[in-house]
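hey so u asked for the seq, here:
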Amino acid sequence: MSASIAWPSVPVSVIVNGAPVPLVIDGACVLDNRERYAHCEAASAAGFPVLTGAGDRTFTAPCALVGSGLSAIALLPEIRARYQRGEEIIAIKGAHDWLIKNGIVPRAAIALDPQQSRSTCFRHPRREVLYLCASQMHPDTWEHLRGYQVLIWHSRIEAEQEKRPEWAKRFIVPCASTTGNSAILLMHLLGRRRFELYGLDSSLPRPSGWWQRATAKTAGRLLKLDGARALKSKRVFTVRVGEREYQTTAELAWQAQELEPLLRSLGAVSVRAHGDGYYQALLAEGRAKGWPV
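ran it, structure tokens below
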């Protein structure tokens, strides 16, 4: 197992006043545990099937996870080629609509966020898609997806969760603080061992041209495939990985910060992150230093 192998650390610095200092990020869920537990009870009453255990098969074929990072745009021909070969394409939140708009119907789509605004993150659901939705999602999710294929899974909310009486017999999926990393954990639990990652960037592209720069100043920096932008009030800072520098936010950077412990927990897997971003650079640096992925 790779967890028994020494994992060299990959230094990441944040540039402050032109000088690099160690990056430290702390994160928390946008809703408190009480609200998330209430969402779980609403999900249990929604009438959809619920995941009751880990998969009983191990798959050696590639599993392509497509997130909403903008690097996926240039890699659309590569994703489409995988789709045409019959490879498994799994969408993460907003990447679902982008893939379908471009003629790619994912086999499944994953969502985790508990905010009401994310209850319709799959704006144009399709009957061919299996929607893997965490029970902590807002209750509006279940009416939005009524009539479609849905499998609810219970994500870990806190360390003491199993001690709550109503959770004693429920199967809980270990998850990360972001949907992208949680998607890796969920699909690994379901038997996938070879991951091809697209659109997991953890960074923002720099605006190019006067129009992008002007729009960034008035509406915020373009953030995701679905057109979401980073609020103008959101602090954007520069991180350095090896010789490369990327612009990011605290929320985006947290996804990359989780990468090493997440991979260590999985054991023997193959993980490749395509495109150019903070997340991809961190994985590349780790592989170069000996990460066994």
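The chain has nine helices and 14 strands. The CA atoms of residues 197 and 273 lie 5 Å apart.
lmk if thats what u needed
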